[in-house]
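Example 3.2
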Amino acid sequence: MWWQGAVVYQIYPLSFLDSDGDGQGDLAGVVEKLGYVAELGVDAVWLSPFFKSPMRDYGYDVEDYTAIDPRFGVMADFERLIEAAHQLGLKVIIDQVLAHTSDRHAWFRSSRAGDPAFADWYVWADPRPDGAPPNNWLSLFGGPAWSWDAGRRQYYLHSFLPEQPHLNLHNPEVRRALIEALRFWLELGVDGFRLDAANFYAHDPGLADNPPRAQAAAAENPYFRQRHVHDRSRPEALDFLAQMRELLDAYPGRVAMAEVFDEEANAARAAEYCAPGRLHTAYSFALFEPELTAGLLRQTISAFFEASPKSWPTWAFSNHDVVRAATRWAGAGIEPRPAKLLIALLLALPGTICLYQGEELGLPQARLPAAESLRDPAGRDGARTPMPWRAGAPQAGFTSGAPWLPVPEAHLPLAVDRQEADPMSTLAFTRAMLRWRQQAGLARAAGFEVLDTPEPVFALVRDVGGDRLLLAFNLSAAPLRLPLSGLEVIEILHAEALAAHGLAARAKGDGIDFAGHGMLWARV
């Protein structure tokens, strides 16, 4: 299937390109830059939400699952996007937010008003005898996961903002309505869905308290002081995954990619959600940790395949929810070698790959003034600033108006036009890596072995047809030597090109000599 080993480029439409000067990116802007995306050498685009929304959580609070929000355009713009992408050989994956809606959704307004047809479409519960919320569940965005509704004289559940009431997916009518929303987009020609917060689909109907999490009393966010065994990652959700898979199987070639957030079993939970008969693939937050180590990579990959050997993983280092990898793992500067190494490392992993817009430029996390940083309730604006297209243009070519978030000065030297003129840029390296990955057959190869190397070296051997390819990475800025044990380097690949990009390594005697942030690609 096309999605196995594909590279999916995530577009955050609000920050990609503004076509009408209102300061906000839109679908017409995405269409205008699809040629740039195709030239990278990726296989698909994933669009973050563009549905009608009050934008309290910037599109992840959906008011209408089958309507385009006017700030992004109209349905004709989306249809034009699908057609243009397919003409360029790009598949189109769109976000679907099925665990909750906006509190402005017609379903919630009816449920809140006591309409019998919708009374049980959301998670409502009576207060405890003392008036307190039904249990101790917490919102990831702060405070209790319950809000009081004076009209119904009940609490409703929200795992995120109070404006994002939790759908009751135990109700078969709710599931049917969501399946029909998915069918609407499939009929329009989308190639698949990225399923937001997929392990939040079900809750314990008995509303039992979550137990405390051992050794988490000092967690900055109280949410992480609980073990979330009753409010998410419930076995009751698995049959809904099978329902979605049944729908997608009726549309050959379409794919469902789940996002799974479970701090206690991230990779294993992702594998569970894409086991045979469920979704096609899944990624977790396991590789969004604040520190990158070889041990983290080995543990994450092992945990996924040990949990479900027949599941197909998706890997990501960055997205709209987390600090950009170039800052999180390599410091806040714009020195290109660490960013290039991260691109090479990500593209070496066995599975499907997600690249977040700007990752191919090595963009660091933006530092924003306090006033602007308050736009997002969870403080994620630094990963969502506008794409810098032209360094010398007003607002870096993103808009002719005032951008919804400022374009950081630090991003201007990394603008697309600057990097396209530089054969040694991170953008040029990303294009080269994507080309090499395809030529070597890494996208299609499933066989691999992760080597037990000492920190800070991560290495794996990929089986590609009759070849065995060694890909080894020095995750530190310091040069080092790695002894080779049981492997004989037959031929070093792309050595001159990697050295030119500052990622030098060479096999010498019975070991590998790495430059700081060096990598070796060899046939063994």
